[in-house]
Amino acid sequence: MLKDKIEKNILEALTKALANGELGELKDLPDVIPVDLPKNPDHGDRAISIAKKLTKDAKIPPRNIAQAITNNIDKNNFQSVEIAGPGFINLKLTWDSLQEIVSEINNDPQNYAQLNSSNKPEQGVKSILLEYVSANPTGDLHLGHGRQAVLGSALAKLLIKAGYQVHNEFYINDAGAQIDKLGNSAKQAILIQEKLLDEAQYDTENNYPLDSMLEFLGPDFYKQELKEDFENITVDEYALLAKQRFLDWQNQVLVNANVVFEKWYSEKENLHSTQKVSRACELLLEKGFAYEQDGALWFKAQEFGDERDRVLKKQDGKYTYLAADLAYHKDKLERGFDLLINLWGADHHGQIAGMKGILEAVALDSSKLDIVLIQMVSLTKAGQEVKMSKRSGNIVTISDLISEVGLDAFRYFLVESQANNRIVFDLELAKKQDKDNPVYYIQYAHARSCSILRNIQELDSNYADFKTSSLNFQNVFHDISPEEEKSTKQLILFLAQYPDLIYDSALNRAPNKLAHYLKELASLFHQFYTHNRVITDDPVLTKARLAIVGATKNILFDCLSILGISAPESM
Fold it and tell me: Is pLDDT of 228 > 90?
């Protein structure tokens, strides 16, 4: 890949300069050579700033170090090598180097930018467990869950591309007061439908909304699952029935949103029934980090940087979320994962210190837990905030929004912003079928590239193989206009950034960077298409430009796939 090759060139030049005694008192060479983008693209294609870093140990000015590098660099790989300012080196690539980028993409498009154990961002990490959404099984999935679902599923694919073994998990909160509340809500809703309870008697203060219960627990469903002795069925049985109904619904909603979980992990079955929660609390007591007071069990959270101690077991004998979370994360680590990534709503910010602290208290490495906080989403139409819910009017569901704007727009607009930024989802923009809508703009670039390749191959089968092994870009592009040259080089160099994008986005848990890259890539491709006639009277020039079109198509497809967005071949 381009960055690796440039880094190798600079390192070889430094090695020669060191052997020639041109680097002052420098004894050891750096392990990594940063390869950057110049602030001004007119200055070069890539920039090297290592001279400034080495000047302290070399005890010579950075410009002297830069000169030593340029004296020893293999200039056959570069059109020009120039020193700027106090010691920056600006590099301009040859057409041969640009051709190599295009060839590398087209020869193995699926594996271009695929990182592995030797070049992935975090070398000590092999397997990752990614947990997200984890909504209570008590209702539909709303837009906040939708953002977690989109970011989580995109992050999972991104981390796989970055060379990790990734597993994803949905944690089912099916123990505690919310399940008791669900059982009572379900029972009363079904009794109302059976005319065994008056609707006015529904406990609206302590139950979940009746309209939601009636929608999901209607006669077509419950009469297939329950005996007719509705009044004598226990609340626990009603809770189990309703829980499974909502889990099935949530799973289908997520599948429709292009989100599939490898494992659904039950708090009740996997933690409480197996005594993992009670044993985790006992371990805290044994280590002296828990105490009993006023009939409750407390964790000494303040000793681990939290603002106050936290309850683990309440006076009524029921365990808190923190106790279950300790058991859950202890179980995760005992399953052998090197890194745990949790996507949490931003309202859970105050729980991070307690969660990290309680892991340290039981001698678990809290650095293996990475929590990504996700801000809320609001909808706008014509500049005004809107509600879309078909039921209560106070929530927007995933299904509602996908139905309104389509799956691809749903995913793109929820992934394009950094997780900790609040999103304003513009409904009108998401539904536009023009260049103002980034989803349409990106997909049109892919469709246009497919159309070009399809049309020329139908016209002349000699163009079925547009790989560049038989071409010479230096000869092909020696006599093109400045606009053609600039747009061609910009596009190829931007394609070459894709491996670095995968690395950086994975390291920073930022799939949103891919969304912005796609938008810029589409723009550069449209500019290339505007300034360069692809199908010409010159078959060699045509084939070279087809190769660039093909490389662009391949990167657009791969990047869209990571984000879970379709790549149409025609529009």
Answer: no
